Amino acid sequence: ADYAAMLAVNHPNVVLGAAELRFLKPVVVGDALVASARRSGEDGKKLRVEAEVRRDGAVVFTGTFTCFTPKRHVLESSSS
Questions:
Q1: Both ends of the chain: CA-CA distance in Å?
Q2: Range(s) of the domain holding residue 31
Q3: What is the pTM of this model?
Q4: pLDDT per position in the chain (80 positions), as tens?
Q5: Domain tally for the chain?
């Protein structure tokens, strides 16, 4: 779901800052899961993303992610 959130932001330098997660139903190894996410708010470089994961059409997980989009990649040297 965090990867889906980062895809929803669609920025090369996206950083995950916080996550509020709810596991609603159990899943087991081998279950086919489908994650989706959408941007639900923006305040400058701070974005809010809502995500959910489904198994057989039923929601098994929801999450709210706070993402940031800095000018430079976090691993890039400040002297570059």
A1: 32
A2: 2-68
A3: 0.84
A4: 888 998 999 999 999 999 999 999 999 999 999 999 999 999 999 999 999 999 999 999 999 999 999 988 888 877 65
A5: 1
